[in-house]
UniProtKB/TrEMBL annotation:
<feature type="domain" description="Tf2-1-like SH3-like">
    <location>
        <begin position="64"/>
        <end position="128"/>
    </location>
</feature>
<dbReference type="InterPro" id="IPR036397">
    <property type="entry name" value="RNaseH_sf"/>
</dbReference>
<dbReference type="GO" id="GO:0003964">
    <property type="term" value="F:RNA-directed DNA polymerase activity"/>
</dbReference>
<keyword id="KW-0695">RNA-directed DNA polymerase</keyword>
<dbReference type="Pfam" id="PF24626">
    <property type="entry name" value="SH3_Tf2-1"/>
</dbReference>
<dbReference type="InterPro" id="IPR056924">
    <property type="entry name" value="SH3_Tf2-1"/>
</dbReference>
<keyword id="KW-0548">Nucleotidyltransferase</keyword>
<keyword id="KW-0808">Transferase</keyword>
<protein>
    <submittedName>
        <fullName>Reverse transcriptase domain-containing protein</fullName>
    </submittedName>
</protein>
């Protein structure tokens, strides 16, 4: 295969080595009854998959169940007056209205989240285990269409300039 490629691409054969390796490793070989890549890494993948599936549980919700909705924590974003590891990862609880397809659910969202689509993949939901209402007020929190928190500066509290050998870095503390 390599010899044929060198003949076809006389001057530029070195640029096609990755393509040759990919083609060879993914083509079915009758002697081993599999592709070389699959024969080499297939058993390891199966073993890792079996280890991962031991703790994985399929989630299913019924209409009327209460669920928490996962929000994306982004660097430097204000999340419910907490910072770093203490940021809220979920908001809610929200009521499940219906199951859509095999892995999607329609939720009843408050009007503050009217810009967000009401259907979510099961991986973005977590069962709400508390009976008491633990709703977090969404009035002072701004969430965009993709469920990312929108950060809005209130005031500039302090300014400072950090001098290095050949440059300076302005540092501004914002609330």
């Amino acid at each position: 295969m390599f010899h044929a490629c060198v003949i076809d691409y006389e001057n530029g054969w070195d640029r096609h080595i990755a393509l040759i390796k990919f083609s060879y490793n993914n083509s079915h070989h009758t002697s081993i009854k599999a592709a070389p890549f699959e024969a080499l890494y297939g058993p390891a993948y199966d073993r890792q998959k079996s280890y991962a599936n031991v703790r994985r549980k399929p989630l299913e919700f019924q209409p009327g169940d209460k669920v928490m909705l996962k929000v994306s924590p982004w660097k430097g974003v204000i999340c419910f007056d907490k910072r770093g590891k203490l940021n809220s990862r979920y908001i809610g609880p929200f009521k499940v209205l219906a199951k859509v397809g095999t892995v999607a659910y329609k939720l009843k969202l408050p009007r503050q989240l009217s810009r967000v689509h009401s259907m979510f993949h099961v991986s973005n939901l977590k069962k709400c285990l508390s009976d008491e209402p633990l709703s977090i007020p969404l009035d002072e929190i701004h969430i965009d269409v993709k469920l990312h928190f929108v950060e809005e500066p209130v005031e500039i509290m302090d300014r400072e300039v950090k001098w290095l050998k050949k440059s300076c870095i302005p540092i501004i503390k914002v609330r």
